[in-house]
Amino acid sequence: MADMQYPNVTVMDHPLIQHKLSILRDKATGSKQFRELVKELAMLMAFEATRGFQLAESTVETPIIETTTYVLAGKKVAVIPILRAGLGMVEGILELIPAARVGHIGLYRDPQTLRPVEYYCKLPEDISERDILIVDPMLATGGSASAAIQFLRERGARNISLLVLIAAPEGIKEVVECAGDVRIYAAAVDSHLNDHGYIVPGLGDAGDRLFGTK
Q: Closest by alpha carbon to 110, among 101, 121, 119?
């Protein structure tokens, strides 16, 4: 479902996605189940995010007859998690697109300014030739996502999509203003950010819940 205010934003209202997201939000959900749900949600969301991939005709021989079929038209994909929470979404996408390359962008949010600080960036050498899926469970202030997009563009990346589980309106606005051509896919858009930069109602700190830290 496209966001009427931002045409490049798609909010996924599929019943399976919404059901799993509800369990993910529950504070009683433990780390093991949380990790499994993030993986499953990423896989489900990847179906929508890859809808625009082009197909090419191919020919195969079935046990009955030779027939024309369709395959991806030479797509080269890169999955780029924003460390550390983005790691939880990678496996689900790779199960759908096993040939995708994986890069990593390490950012942390300064607790005073709430702005991102880069500490690591490792990307495939041919990043400019790939369709890129940036993944991060939460789009809060939008600072980390915008910084990641900027890092990728500085290295030649062009076709970029952003997959998040939960977004805040403030984060969407920041990314759209920074990079209006980037497609954003979210399972939910929540109410707002609190004074500490957390999404409300959200699900807490996704990284801590994924890895059992505090």
A: 119
Distance CA 33, CA 117 (A): 30
Tokens for 173?
């606005």
Q: What are phi and psi of 116, to 5 degrees?
A: -75, 145
* Orientation angle between helical segments 31-49 and 87-96, nearest 10 degrees: 50
SS3 58: strand
Tell me how crowded residue 109 is: count the other CB atoms within 10 A of its CB.
Answer: 15
Residues acting as catalytic residues: 109, 113, 205, 208
How many percent of the chain have pLDDT more than 70?
Answer: 97
For residue range 93-130, list pLDDT tens digits in order: 999 999 999 999 998 777 777 677 888 999 999 999 99
Phi-psi category of 114—alpha, beta or left, where left has phi over 0 and alpha has psi -120 to 50?
left
pLDDT tens column, 25-56: 999 999 999 999 999 999 999 998 998 888 89
